[in-house]
Design a protein that fits this description.
alpha+beta, elongated, protein-glutamine gamma-glutamyltransferase activity, TGM3L glutamyltransferase, transferase, Ig_E-set
């Protein structure tokens, strides 16, 4: 007997148990056939993450290595990065990140029911990659000494970071900065089937008071007055 299982394009991603139930007269028996993991499918035209171009799918889903640009606007450097989304246990770690999120801890049923939405999943992963907000994967540090952890410049891939977080009982990995967060997030999203790429921008606006403008105050002599925490960095 051959059995074909077709999941809806908007099905919730995650780990499923597959059971076979047999009814014979008044007797009902159930057998566990195994488990499977359902992912987003960029090859499926009805899936929200569908990409029609095969080259795009190769680059943004299947490619497990790439280049991350960093540095200054007039001095741009490129660093190789191992995304490693197909490495052993990375998918398990990605699912664990979802289950460790604040959303899941507050209301597991609502959180899981939203995991058919790639926008929702991306936002959860984005929050969880940065431990400063939700006790997630990587702890950020932008100055001082890094003797209590790893200098962000020394990382060359996501796999070591993710495994260290997972095997260390979800203790944030020290330390990361913007490109480290981006590289790790790219790995997790690609492992879940969401097409992802890392983009580097320079002169980033940081609007601390959320008024949709970057404010700068100067006195009559042109000296900067530190009356706002807005910045461009």
């Amino acid at each position: 007997m051959n059995i074909t299982i077709s999941s809806p394009a908007n099905a919730v991603i995650g780990r499923y148990k597959l059971k076979l139930q047999i009814v014979s007269g008044n007797k009902v028996s159930s057998t566990l056939l195994g488990q499977f993991v359902l992912l987003f499918n960029p090859w499926c035209p009805n899936d929200d993450v569908y990409m029609a171009n095969e080259q795009d799918r190769w680059e943004y889903v299947l490619n497990d290595s790439g280049i991350i640009f960093q540095g200054l606007e007039k001095y741009i450097q490129q660093e190789a990065w191992n995304y490693g989304q197909f490495e052993e246990d990375i998918l398990d770690i990605s699912l664990a990140i979802l289950d460790r999120s604040l959303n899941h801890r507050q209301d597991p049923a609502v959180d899981v029911s939203n995991r058919n939405n790639p926008i929702y999943v991306s936002r959860v992963i984005s929050a969880m990659v940065n431990s400063n907000d939700e006790k997630g994967v990587v702890e950020g540090k932008w100055n001082g000494k890094y003797c209590s952890g790893t200098n962000p410049l020394q990382w060359s891939g996501s796999v070591t970071i993710l495994r260290k977080w997972y095997r260390g009982r979800y203790k944030p990995v020290r330390y990361g900065q913007c490109w480290v967060f981006a590289g790790v997030m790219c790995t997790v999203l690609r492992s879940l089937g969401i097409p992802t790429r890392v983009i580097t921008n320079f002169n980033s606006a940081h609007d601390r008071n959320i008024n949709l403008s970057i404010d700068k105050y100067i006195d009559i002599s042109g000296k900067t007055l530190h009356l706002t925490e807005d910045s461009v960095w």
